[in-house]
Specification:
Blueprint: E1 12-19, E2 32-35, E3 40-42, E4 50-59, H1 72-78, E5 88-92, E6 105-111, E7 119-125, E8 143-147, E9 154-157, E10 166-171, E11 174-180, E12 185-193, E13 195-196, E14 210-215, E15 228-234, E16 252-255, H2 257-263, H3 270-273, E17 281-286, E18 295-299, E19 309-315
Antiparallel strand pairs: 1-4, 1-5, 2-3, 6-7, 8-18, 9-17, 10-11, 12-16, 12-19, 13-18, 14-15, 14-17
Length: 323
């Protein structure tokens, strides 16, 4: 068990069943035991059709292994290679719980027919496995999401004329001074995101790295299906699971200096955005996508007090005439 990916501080109970139907470990879902595109076969019982109960086990905080004893009758059934339904189904009986296994092994202790006083230990791995769950996470209401499986993305649309944004300045004590962003040097720009609680059962089980990609929408595609450019910014450090437990957390910064500089009138950096176009949209993704089951949540503009902000650090040059 990956103890670094466990959020629970209480014991978690599990049950081990034999499966009663064949399934495709690469495509099985809560409703379908085979979902290969061309073939879709449903489970008789959603979540996996259960055969006989084999055994139970309880994980206690700090345990690095979870062991299910297997009887000889089950062992004989699982040894039949002609039985297409043979398989194991592990069910979490404790609600809102989840464990992450680094490896699943089958260990058999047997007596040799030639040397009955000798115990042989045989260890094998599994042919394939899949993780299925229900229900799906509730739709977002006032939050943005990144990560998860399938992966969530969050999009930001910037105004086309951001270069005409008036930036306050204080040169020579002139408090009322303002300068257009296109006339300033952008030293640093970043999206500020406020972490908020992720729905129960879907908290990240591992750290998340958030990356910003340029997006190239067009009139024929919605922004959610538009092609992505290269990464234009990434969090400096991975975000830890406790940052999404609903406590008071500092805002997360995603630096996007080059992207904003381009919007403010600079020439497109083809090494960064891979195009001579000047995109005005960003997509935030966990990188690599699909690396965690859980996802991170951030406040959206529907929560004005915690809404995303754009941080700008600029330098304003003042013209000085020399005699």
């Amino acid at each position: 068990i990956d103890t670094t990916a466990v959020a629970s501080t209480a014991p978690i109970a599990f049950e081990l069943y034999r499966t009663a139907e064949s399934f495709d470990a690469a495509s099985a879902s809560w409703k379908l035991r085979v979902d290969s595109g061309g073939i879709s076969l449903p489970w008789q019982t959603p979540g996996g059709t259960r055969g006989p109960l084999v055994s139970t086990a309880t994980w206690t905080p700090g345990d690095t292994t979870l062991v299910f004893p297997v009887d000889s009758v089950t062992l004989k059934v699982w040894s039949d290679t002609l039985d297409e339904t043979r398989g194991a189904l592990i069910v979490a009986k404790t609600g809102d719980s989840r464990l992450r296994a680094n490896a699943i092994l089958f260990k058999e202790f047997a007596h040799s027919t030639f040397h009955r006083d000798t115990v042989l230990t045989i260890t094998t791995g599994n042919v394939g496995s899949t993780f299925i769950f229900d229900p799906p996470p509730p739709p977002p209401t006032t939050e943005l999401r990144v990560g998860g499986q399938p992966a969530w993305r969050s999009y930001f649309q910037f105004r086309d004329n951001i270069d005409s944004l008036s930036v306050p300045c204080a040169i020579g004590g002139a408090a009322a001074c303002h300068v257009l962003l296109k006339n300033a040097t952008i030293n640093y720009a970043a999206l500020l995101l406020q972490p908020v609680a992720t729905p129960s059962g879907y908290a990240p089980e591992d750290t998340i790295v958030v990356a910003a990609y340029s997006v190239f929408p067009n009139s024929t595609l919605p922004v959610g299906r538009s092609p992505l450019g290269n990464i234009v910014g990434i969090t400096r450090a991975p975000l830890k699971p406790p940052q999404f437990n609903g406590g008071v957390q500092n805002r997360v910064e995603v630096p996007i200096t080059g992207f904003i500089s381009t919007l403010a009138g600079g020439k497109p950096d083809t090494a960064v955005i891979n195009s001579t176009a000047r995109p005005t949209s960003l997509a935030l993704l966990a990188t690599p996508e699909g690396s965690t089951f859980g996802f991170g949540s951030f406040a959206s503009r529907r929560n004005p007090a915690l809404a995303p902000k754009l941080r700008l650090v600029v330098t304003v040059a003042r013209e000085v005439q020399l005699p």
